[in-house]
Structure formats: structure tokens, C-alpha cells
Amino acid sequence: MNSINGFSVNGQNPQPHLQREPLSDELKAQAQEIISKYDAQNMSEDDKTSMREELHEAGIGRSRELKTILQDEGFEVKGPPKKHARPAPSSETAQPNQDIADFLEKYESGNLTDQDIDSLVELLRKSGLTSSGVVVDETA
């Protein structure tokens, strides 16, 4: 069985979140018409891309209803890739958290220097916190 992953088009997800409004009867019928053109048991990558593009061009975004329609037609639907979990805080991350707090205190007081910025960047680099995403955990 072939799967349709996250309805991304050419590696980009045109509608990253599930639609909040239910699909109209017209859009449901249009989705079923588009999906019926494809064989769930024999989908090439080009077929998957074509289906996603047709659905997108018809204004049909990811939704629970679309997922149900796809599953009813025999498609295995997978959600978007899971984000990598951040490592649990440890004693090694306790010091960077204090250093970040000190950095913010200097910033707010107007006493921040270029050396302070360079030191923070290096600290983040060493602790592995320079990947994209949230740097400061507000729950800590």
C-alpha cells in the first residue's frame, strides 16, 4: 500500500496545518473525483506529487475529512514528519540557562557588548542549541 505523507508538494507543505473549517460537499466531491484517478496500490512518486498538486489547486487542504476520503479509497495516510525531541535538561544545560539569563539581564540594562554576543553564540554552539527552533525553554 502506498502512503501519502503530509500532503507536501515537491517537499514543501503548502498548508502545514489541518484546515479548521469542514470541507463543503462540493469540495468533498471534487476530492473524491481527484483521488479516484489514482490507484492506491500502484502509486509512483510522480502520481503522489500530481495528486497533491491537484488537491492543492482545487483549494483542498489537509483535513480530517480528506484523510478519511483517502483512507476510504485505500490510501495509507501518514502525518507530517515528527519534530526531533529536545534532550531533557541536565546539569550540563543548567549553566547555559544561567548564562542566557545573564545575557538577557545585560541586554535589558543596555550593557551588552560584542564580546557578550560572541560568548553566547559560542556557548550555544557548544551546547548544541544552535539548530533551528526555540532556544529558551519558557517552562524551565
Oligomeric nature of the chains: single chain
Q: Going across the biggest sheet, name each strand in turn.
A: 1-2
Distance between the termini: 44 Å
Task: Determine the structural class based on helices, strands and strand pairing.
Answer: mainly alpha
Low-pLDDT runs: 7-17
The helix fraction, in percent, is: 40-55%
The fraction of residues assigned to DSSP E strands is under 5%
Largest sheet: 2 strands, parallel
The count of domains is 2
Number of strands: 2
Mean pLDDT: 74
The coarse silhouette is elongated
Encode the helix/strand succession as letters.
EHHHEHH
Number of helices: 5
- CA radius of gyration is 23 Å
Summarize the structure.
This protein is mainly alpha-helical.
What distinguishing features does this structure have?
140 residues, mainly alpha, 2 domains, two-stranded parallel ribbon, 5 helices, 2 strands
Topology, please?
Elements: E1 3-5, H1 25-35, H2 45-57, H3 64-72, E2 76-78, H4 91-109, H5 114-127
Helix pairs in contact: 1-3, 4-5
